[in-house]
C-alpha cells in the first residue's frame, strides 16, 4: 500500500461533470449532486485504513453540511475492484447502508472521473462553492490510519462551512493523505 498526499488547491478550478451510477443504480451528474451552497466530492473506497479511520465522522459531517449549510456530498469509488473484494459493488452497497450514507456512493468503473479530477488517493477531497469552483483540497483532519484525537480541528468541515457562508475556502490547507488509487493496468 502506497501512501500519497494530494496537491495544493487550485482555487477556482471548475468542477468536472460526470455521469455515474450509485449503489442502487441511480445515475448522478454534477448538476444533480450539487447543493445550494456547494458540493464536496470525495474519492474513497471501502478497504483503505485512512477512510476507515474517518468514515463515521465523514458521514456525520456530510449530513450536517447538507442539512445546516446546503453543501451536498458525493462519494466516488474509482479503485480497480478486482484488486480488493472489499471494494466490490456489493460491499459498497453494504457499507453505504450500514453507515447510513446521506449522500450517493457512485462507481467510477472506467476510472475516467478520477483521472479528470486528478485524484491521487483515498481520501481525496474536492470542495466546491455554489458556483462549482474549487475552494478546498485538503485533509479531513489530523487523522491518518488512526482517528485523530478527540477535539482535533475538523479541517474539512470548517473549510466547507466557510465555503458555504462566504463562497471562499481557507487560504491555508493541509494536504490530504491516503492510500494510492488502485489503477487498472491500462491506466498506468
TrEMBL record:
Thioredoxin domain location: 9-165
Q: Which GO terms describe its molecular function?
A: antioxidant activity; oxidoreductase activity
Q: Where are the transmembrane segments?
A: none
Family matches, as PROSITE patterns: THIOREDOXIN_2 (PS51352)
CDD domains reported in the protein's UniProt record = PRX_like1
Q: Give the domain of life.
A: Bacteria
Fetch the InterPro entries from UniProt. Answer: AhpC/TSA, PRX-like1, Thioredoxin-like_sf, Thioredoxin_domain
The protein's name is Thioredoxin family protein
Task: Tell me the lineage of the source organism.
Answer: Bacteria, Pseudomonadati, Pseudomonadota, Gammaproteobacteria, Thiotrichales
